[in-house]
Specification:
By secondary structure, the protein is mostly helical. It is built from 12 helices and 2 strands; from the N terminus they run E-H-E-H-H-H-H-H-H-H-H-H-H-H. It is 54% helix and 2% strand.
C-alpha cells in the first residue's frame, strides 16, 4: 500500500526522489508508489537547495538514478515544481530557485554529462545517462514564457537568463540544452532568443558542425 509523506525533511525528500532502482517505467508510475505532499513554499526551498548542491547531494546515486529523479522532479503530470507557478510562494523565492538551476548545470551537468548531442535521431554511442534530462530540461520544465502577464516578467527573465548563461558553459550537452530551450521560448520571446543565439554563434565560430546546425534550427524555432 502506498504512503503519502507530508512532513519530509530535506534529506528524506532527496531520498524520496532519487533512492530507487532504475526501472522502465520509472518507479513513480507505479500506482502503489509512495508520494510526497509538501507545501509549495517548502518544495521551492528544497529544490533550490538541491540545485545549489547537486554535486554533493547526488554523489551517492548513479547517473541513471539522478536522471530518473530529476525527470520526475521537473516533468510528469504531478511535477513537484509546479510550485513555481504558485503565487502563494514569494516571487523572490521562486526566482531564486530558477536562478539556482545555473549552478546545477555548472557543477553537476558539466562534469557528469558526456560530450554527445541528444537531438539526433539515434543516440550516439557512449552518451551518458544524464544527457537526456539535461537536453530536455526546458522542454519538460513546468514553466513556459508568458510575456502578456506582467506578474510573470521576473520569472521569465530568470529562465531566459539561465539559458543564456548555460549556453556559455564548456559542455556540448549544456549548450545543446540551452539552444533547445531558447528554440521553444522563441515562440514567446523571438527577438530576445534570436539575439542570444546569434551572439553565441558569432562568439564561437569553431562550433562543431552539428551543434552549429542545431543553433540555426533553434534560432528559427525548428526544435522538437
Amino acid at each position: 500500500m502506498s504512503k503519502v509523506f507530508t512532513g519530509l525533511s530535506f534529506d528524506a525528500w532527496v531520498r524520496h526522489l532519487f533512492d530507487h532502482p532504475v526501472t522502465e517505467p520509472a518507479w513513480h508510475w507505479d500506482e502503489d508508489a509512495d508520494s510526497a505532499e509538501l507545501p509549495p513554499q517548502l518544495v521551492v526551498a528544497y529544490a533550490t537547495e538541491l540545485f545549489q548542491h547537486a554535486g554533493n547531494l547526488l554523489a551517492s546515486y548513479t547517473d541513471a538514478q539522478a536522471n530518473q529523479g530529476l525527470w520526475f522532479l521537473i516533468s510528469e503530470g504531478n511535477s513537484p515544481l509546479y510550485a513555481l507557478n504558485d503565487a502563494s510562494v514569494p516571487l523572490e523565492q521562486r526566482v531564486n530557485c530558477i536562478r539556482s538551476i545555473t549552478t546545477l548545470f555548472e557543477q553537476y551537468f558539466v562534469p557528469r554529462c558526456t560530450q554527445h548531442l541528444s537531438h539526433l535521431n539515434e543516440t550516439e554511442p557512449g552518451t551518458g545517462a544524464l544527457n537526456m534530462v539535461c537536453y530536455m530540461w526546458w522542454d519538460i520544465f513546468p514553466l513556459c514564457g508568458q510575456p502578456e502577464d506582467a506578474a510573470r516578467r521576473e520569472i521569465d527573465e530568470a529562465c531566459l537568463s539561465v539559458m543564456k548563461t548555460t549556453l556559455q558553459l564548456p559542455s556540448l550537452a549544456c549548450q545543446e540544452s540551452a539552444l533547445h530551450g531558447l528554440g521553444h521560448w522563441g515562440l514567446h520571446y523571438q527577438e530576445h532568443c534570436q539575439s542570444i543565439i546569434s551572439a553565441f554563434t558569432q562568439r564561437h565560430q569553431d562550433l562543431c558542425p552539428r551543434l552549429a546546425k542545431y543553433a540555426a534550427l533553434a534560432k528559427d524555432r525548428h526544435v522538437l
